[in-house]
Amino acid sequence: MKRNLNQITTAAVLSLLLTGAAQAAPSLLTWASFTNTTDLSGLTGTLENTNAANLFGGVGSGIAWAGGNQFVMAPDRGPNASAWNSSLDNTTSYISRLHNVTLNLQQTTPNVFNLTPTLNSTTLLYSSTALNYGATSTIVGNKNFFNGRSDNFASGSSSLNSNNARFDPEAVRISADGRYAYVSDEYGPYVYQFDRATGERTKAFALPSNLGVTNLSSVGNTEINGNTTGRIANKGMEGLAISPDGSTLYGFMQSPLEQDSISGKPGDGPFNRIIKIDIESGNTHQFAYNNVVGTNKSQNSSEILAINANEFLVLERDGKGLGDGSSAAYKKLIKIDLTGATDVSNLSGTNALAPHAVNGTLFLDIFAGLTNAGFAATNIPAKLEGLAWGEDVMINGTNTHTLYLVNDNDFVPNVAGSDMIFVFGVTAADLNGSTFVQQAVPEPSTWALLGMSAVAGLILIRSRKQQS
Questions:
Q1: Residue ranges of the domains in the chain?
Q2: What is the pLDDT of residues 288-306, one digit of tens each?
Q3: Which contacts (CB < 8 Å, 24+ apart) does range 293-297 have?
Q4: pTM of the prediction?
């Protein structure tokens, strides 16, 4: 579905954009949504909850630019809105996957854009070595597939055990040579490197022990209540950035760790952790991010994106809006600078982190931008989660960076609407003194058809309906 600024924007905003009036804030260029109901994984059959194994949805959990108009999008652990087994939080054996998509941004006039999203291929993610499964496994030949079932872990081990099959992708970035996809997850948390062409995991980064939990459960609330340190269940490594030169990853925790939370309120607190990972060596550092901006506080910090080697955008949001049956109120991008930030790896607790926390400044009020364009607060997606830069465009003679924002509809389009893509234009003035450095990526033609060979041998795979 294509939309542009002329379709539902208010007259005042349209006039402002068409006259090229200066404003120190990114402007909404266009938006569109996917109409797909099935993906290109080649899977057939149904999941435990009767959803199709090749169900398309949730793709706004993560998005990464792959050059030109090519992007990679990551759905999360799969559909679990249908009740079938509360002891598993209704999670299913939905195989983790990546979607290679074209987001064709067309400039019809100097100021008007259309966006057409196309799904090109789907790549299933697997390990060639054995993984720990619960009551049911997803193995074909030597491919041990990662999937979303919450019982896929080894008893007595930490949640950081990279042999666990449970995987909840929340963010994705592409390597500088285009060969690999880096994916962060909430269950571990984990950060894995996958071969884009085959979906095989080729590297697992060893994350700091203070991020993991030791008492595991297939029920999220039980896991939260059973631990005093580590990530909060379902609020693990929600965001992932890559430095423009492709050498460093920055994982972003969705909420404070148990040990950084306000007493008695797991996951509630003013500081989220950013984990810096050197891709070659695996060495890590941790920084504290102050999630309080003005008088507002967000406990859903959903994404991080590099502006340059030191500055980043952080996506903060409430859980309100379309999909929640409520009205959105707080959706913002915050700009931060990690230059000179203190490593807090050996610190914990709000008092310890407070003197070292990195503060941010407002970069974009997404809620205001969407409501000014005619979106009712009830129709703004509740779970805006993915963020990526795209190709530059020229608007009225001004070079403009494109910023793609996507939502996770949790595989329930009848409740949360379609998977939408919003495109904002960002000028040098909008960056307010920051220097934008685009990520290094290969020519898109080299990778446009990635994943097609990976599905050829999977056409007959069937996900069987099983009860634990």
A1: 2-463
A2: 999 875 444 555 789 999 9
A3: 293/332, 293/334, 293/360, 293/362, 294/362, 296/330, 296/332, 297/270
A4: 0.91
